Amino acid sequence: MMKVIGSIVAMQQEMIQAKRAGKSIGFVPTMGYLHEGHLRLVEEAKKENDLVVMSIFVNPLQFGPNEDFNTYPRDFNRDEQLAAEAGVDYLFYPNQDEMYPAELTTSLTVKKRVDVLCGRKRIGHFDGVVTVVMKLFHIAMPDRAYFGLKDAQQVAVIQGMVADYNMPITIVPVPIVREQDGLAKSSRNVNLLEHERSEAPAIYKSLLHAKTKIEQGERNPQALIETITNMIKDNTSGIVDYVEIYSFPELEQLTELKGTIIIAIAVQFQKARLIDNIIVTV
Ligand code: AMP
């Protein structure tokens, strides 16, 4: 039976007991409104650990003032059922006061891998992410934590934090789960208008096109960025927020495509901003 726990102290007591009993803990942090992407992370965690902990917390710190904190989709009853069916052992579901009872007395600031992609426009977003993940890691006490490559910059930033602070946690990146038409699964997809939903697969199509170009010998990042941008402009009503190519996971600029690279896109639709990427080894 899955246990739902809202209290940090209660969660920590459970985890300490589990560790004393020699059990390994796999952790899947989420903001809820679960879909198959989240459930894939649970599947991976179940394979490699004795216990699986999922958290559901829409973290206000990682939303900017003009972002979608209020309209972010939420449905706890549905999530609880999906998590239980997926085999989650502990569902940590704290409220805001539990996580942030008072102003923090210290702060974490991301210094690298943050002045590109989503970090460039979403000022403070990754500071909010590392702050909540640091807290969650001290609550769930995982051996391994599972993060989707859908948010590849998040993976890179968290890997940086874990290395910086010698956290005894293995970060496991999990490939992107997609709809049949290629659209990356996202809780935010429900906020797409009907015509936007039918245009949205163009984002992944443009990434696949870029991959083919690379396979055919293209090595100029700027040329690919132009091709992708035009494909999205021509096939969607969304506004291209960025199309960028970097080394991965360092997220450093490239003059020529070489090594492991990420091609990443963000497109702003009316009520949802979508991101997608592919990672390719050239
Ligand atoms: P979120 O609830 O959107 O914060 O996502 C929680 C975790 O699920 C993050 O590690 C995401 O990267 C991951 N995730 C979200 N969507 C997908 C997807 N389509 N495929 C794989 N992982 C995903």
Helices and strands in order:
Elements (H helix, E strand, L loop, with lengths): L2 E3 L2 H13 L4 E6 L5 H13 L2 E6 L19 H11 L3 E3 L3 H4 L17 H5 L3 H16 L3 E5 L3 H13 L5 E5 L19 H6 L1 H15 L5 H15 L3 E9 L12 E9 L4 E9 L1
Parallel strand pairs: 1-4, 2-3, 2-5, 3-4, 5-6
Antiparallel strand pairs: 7-8, 8-9
The protein binds adenosine monophosphate.
Strand content: 15-25%
- State the shape: globular
How many individual helices?
10
Q: What Rg, in angstroms, do the CA atoms define?
A: 19 Å
Describe the main β-sheet briefly: 6 strands, parallel
Question: What's the rounded overall pLDDT mean?
Answer: 97
In the sheet with the most strands, the strands line up as 1-4-3-2-5-6
Structural class, please? Answer: alpha/beta
Q: Low-confidence segments, ≥5 residues, pLDDT <50? A: none
Give the H and E element order.
Answer: EHEHEHEHHHEHEHHHEEE
